From TrEMBL:
<dbReference type="Pfam" id="PF24419">
    <property type="entry name" value="Cupin_NOL9"/>
</dbReference>
<dbReference type="GO" id="GO:0000448">
    <property type="term" value="P:cleavage in ITS2 between 5.8S rRNA and LSU-rRNA of tricistronic rRNA transcript (SSU-rRNA, 5.8S rRNA, LSU-rRNA)"/>
</dbReference>
<dbReference type="GO" id="GO:0005730">
    <property type="term" value="C:nucleolus"/>
</dbReference>
<dbReference type="GO" id="GO:0051731">
    <property type="term" value="F:polynucleotide 5'-hydroxyl-kinase activity"/>
</dbReference>
<feature type="region of interest" description="Disordered">
    <location>
        <begin position="1"/>
        <end position="97"/>
    </location>
</feature>
<comment type="similarity">
    <text>Belongs to the Clp1 family. NOL9/GRC3 subfamily.</text>
</comment>
<protein>
    <recommendedName>
        <fullName>Polynucleotide 5'-hydroxyl-kinase NOL9</fullName>
    </recommendedName>
</protein>
<feature type="compositionally biased region" description="Basic residues">
    <location>
        <begin position="51"/>
        <end position="65"/>
    </location>
</feature>
<dbReference type="Pfam" id="PF25467">
    <property type="entry name" value="NOL9_C"/>
</dbReference>
<keyword id="KW-0067">ATP-binding</keyword>
<dbReference type="InterPro" id="IPR057573">
    <property type="entry name" value="NOL9_N"/>
</dbReference>
<feature type="domain" description="NOL9 N-terminal">
    <location>
        <begin position="141"/>
        <end position="271"/>
    </location>
</feature>
<feature type="compositionally biased region" description="Polar residues">
    <location>
        <begin position="70"/>
        <end position="93"/>
    </location>
</feature>
<feature type="domain" description="NOL9 C-terminal">
    <location>
        <begin position="557"/>
        <end position="658"/>
    </location>
</feature>
<keyword id="KW-0698">rRNA processing</keyword>
<keyword id="KW-0547">Nucleotide-binding</keyword>
<dbReference type="InterPro" id="IPR027417">
    <property type="entry name" value="P-loop_NTPase"/>
</dbReference>
């Protein structure tokens, strides 16, 4: 087959055309994966069957502030790790946490109106420790209606339910908290995801905001809608002034159906092996897709500094600030940055309609597949790991790799481009996530980010007893060198005048993570970083499936778009590929759908990019096939057709399709599409060639 001569883009173009090819191919039957033969695991898997429930679009926020559950502190509180500069970048003063200060007394009173994941401040005392619901106590306070396939649970103040699985939660009476977010009666139902890949979720009952209500009367009017007479009479006996009543319903979505269709992921929402002995399998909740865990299994463990940092940041965001708060969260790998950010965003959403999020971690992204930098507006709580909330960001740039070490300049320029696209008049709180690379060039990038953005708070996470990197205080930043920025030079004259600009100032907070395994990568199934990246990508690709219940369709059975090769440019941005091999590299691969600033056209051949552009990305697709004779790309993507009309560039990066997507295709007796065994990596040059740009070793910096 003859190929056209490639054309490198620098020219103007005619508009592209995306055609939806409606094939006549019938849908092949697909059989479900066989479950594990273990009787315990099989039982749990069967109990997870549920019907799909659409999420109502109901306004969540209320005008009133929500009281907070606060914690106890001994009189001999150690010196706070919150470091206070003289002034804030936003013009307000920093918090003083010393017990004898006036600011501390004001903070104690003010914190009563702040809620964040059971957050407890250092100035209040809570006489009641959380009590885990398990075993017999669950039978006494939970009843299931098999006819309606749901369960009602009565929880008292400070009782907790830690579980694996997934469900819809609706608060019928009182208030509960999940990962920093308060769910009250009258609000919509929320999906909860507690897979084996992450820390199990915990539902915690909070104190009622209205102590004057007639609990028995109101509860007796609520329960008849959900339970038969005998069941509700039993539950009414345990209703008190501090009770919360929640409705738990099974949940099945296109995402969960798609993931469970793969053998390796069929038990993703079951307890991992080390928790099987701690799972409670004979409660009214099990048949709904929830598996309660005994107290021996910890949920989210917060250290004292963790709680103090959450309270302080949420309080500052709710206070009178000159402009919006910009919170940068940093720290080494595996110290809980992502979990802290989710909890922080949830706590902020208790008091505000939205929170902006700037993604700076290429390897562990929150709302997109790996390899992306994005700016997102979060309006709904994050009640599960990243793969459960893959949502289109407002602005996104595809970097194409899980690390920026190959091109530091493009990484920084991409972040600055995203920030410039944010409206200057927007006064929404911004949370910035950073990489776990905090040594060498990685630390220099962190210094640059603090200087580039108008940061008001820097939250630095670490694990006890180990200093992964210096504390990035405002004082330290005055002399620190970044990759693109450097400390201002102070002349002898400046020392006696005030002509030079004042140093950048912000509140610096240190958080010590104390959960088990802090600082170490997870080794259990589904907990390795590469597996987490694959889960996020598979969650994105699940959008290709029909929202209606039915068999999962393989790549070859989905209807693709046909895209003229002359209408879109094709580029490989993570390694060097000769033009004649470009199609071999791109076929059956994940590509980013991007929008170049200049138009693209060709005189008959494909348009190939010679360098990596910094341009908007609107989503991803799978390049299912290439027709050289007709000059067409065949593309599968969940992106809306109205958005696709703007796409004029396909970028191939180092983010590859999970192998299970290609190896589990059904409907073939012989060789599967895209799969071959006729290849040898022993041949010289068979692997990809990585190119490093501008990475001179520190020891050689003065050698030239």
């Amino acid at each position: 087959m003859k190929s056209h001569k490639p054309t490198h883009v620098k020219v103007h173009a005619k508009s592209q055309k995306w055609k939806d090819v409606r094939g006549k191919r019938s849908r092949p039957p697909i059989t479900s994966s066989e479950l594990n033969s273990s009787p315990v695991v099989a039982r749990m898997a069967v109990e997870h069957k549920a019907t799909q429930k659409k999420k109502p679009n109901v306004k969540r926020l209320k005008s009133k502030a929500k009281p907070v559950s606060v914690s106890k502190t001994k009189t001999n509180t150690p010196q706070s790790v919150i470091q206070k500069p003289h002034t804030q970048a936003n013009g307000s003063s920093a918090f003083k946490m010393d017990n004898d200060s006036n600011d501390s007394l004001d903070w104690k009173e003010y914190s009563l109106s702040i809620h964040g994941n059971g957050v407890k401040t250092s100035g209040e005392i809570d006489d009641v420790e959380p009590v885990r619901l398990e075993g017999a106590s669950l039978h006494n306070c939970a009843e299931r209606d098999d006819r309606q396939n749901h369960a009602v649970l009565i929880m008292q103040k400070n009782q907790t339910l830690c579980f694996r699985g997934k469900c819809h939660l609706t608060c019928l009476y009182g208030r509960v908290e999940v990962m920093g977010f308060t769910i009250e009666e009258g609000q919509q139902s929320y999906p909860l995801f507690s897979p084996a890949s992450h820390c199990p979720l915990t539902i915690r009952a909070l104190e009622s905001s209205d102590q004057t209500r007639d609990d028995k009367t109101e509860a007796s009017s609520i329960l008849p809608k959900y339970l038969p007479s005998a069941s509700r009479k039993k539950l009414l006996k345990s209703v008190t002034s501090n009770s919360s009543i929640i409705l738990l319903e099974p949940m099945e979505t296109p995402l969960t159906r798609f993931l469970s269709s793969f053998t390796d992921l069929s038990e993703l929402f079951c307890p991992p092996v080390n928790e099987l002995m701690s799972a409670v399998l004979d409660t009214p909740l099990n048949g709904l897709g929830m598996i309660p865990l005994v107290a021996a299994i910890e949920g989210l463990k917060m250290s004292k500094t963790y709680r103090e940092a959450l309270n302080m940041v949420v309080g500052a965001c709710r206070g009178d600030m000159d402009g919006c708060a910009v919170i940068l969260v940093c720290g080494s790998k595996n110290v809980g940055k992502s979990t802290f950010i989710r909890t922080l965003i949830n706590a902020l959403l208790n008091h505000t309609a939205s929170v902006d999020y700037l993604e700076g971690d290429l390897g562990q992204t929150e709302f997109t597949p790996a390899g992306c930098l994005c700016l997102s507006t979060v309006t709904e709580p994050l009640l599960g790991p990243p793969f459960t909330h893959q949502i289109p960001p407002e602005h996104m740039i595809y970097f194409g790799h899980t690390s920026c070490d190959t091109d530091l300049e493009r990484y920084l320029e991409s972040l600055k481009t995203l920030w410039r696209r944010r409206s200057p008049s927007k006064e929404t709180t911004v949370v910035i996530n950073t990489m776990g690379w905090v040594k060498g060039f990685g630390f220099q990038l962190l210094v640059d980010m603090i200087r580039f953005f108008p940061v008001s708070h820097v939250v630095q996470l670490g694990h006890s007893g180990v200093n992964q990197c210096p504390a990035v205080t405002p004082e330290f930043l005055r002399t620190a060198h970044g990759h693109q920025t450097h400390p201002p030079a102070v002349t002898a004259l400046d020392e006696f005048t005030e002509s030079h600009s004042p140093p950048k100032s912000y509140t610096h907070v240190i958080v010590k993570s104390e959960f088990q395994g802090a600082g170490k990568q997870g080794t259990a199934k589904h907990q390795r970083t590469n597996e987490l990246r694959e889960l996020s990508l598979m969650a994105y690709l699940s959008q290709l499936q029909s929202p209606d219940p039915g068999p999962i369709r393989s790549l070859h059975s989905l209807t693709p778009y046909q895209v003229p090769q002359a209408a879109v440019a094709l580029g490989v941005i993570h390694c060097e590929v000769v033009p004649t091999h470009m199609f071999y590299a791109a076929n059956a691969s994940l590509v980013a759908l991007c929008c170049l600033g200049e138009k693209v056209s060709s005189k008959g051949g494909p348009v190939l990019l010679s360098q990596a552009p910094i341009c908007p990305c609107v989503g991803f697709g799978v390049l299912r096939g290439i027709d050289m004779a007709r000059g067409l790309y065949f593309l599968l993507t969940p992106v809306n057709p109205t958005v696709l009309r703007k796409v004029n560039c396909l970028l191939l990066g180092a983010i590859s399709l999970p192998s299970c997507i290609l190896t589990t295709q059904s409907g073939f007796d012989g060789e599967m599409p895209y799969i071959t065994t006729d290849y040898s990596f022993d041949i010289t040059g068979a692997g990809k060639l990585r190119v490093f740009k501008g990475l001179t070793r520190p020891s050689l910096m003065g050698a030239q």
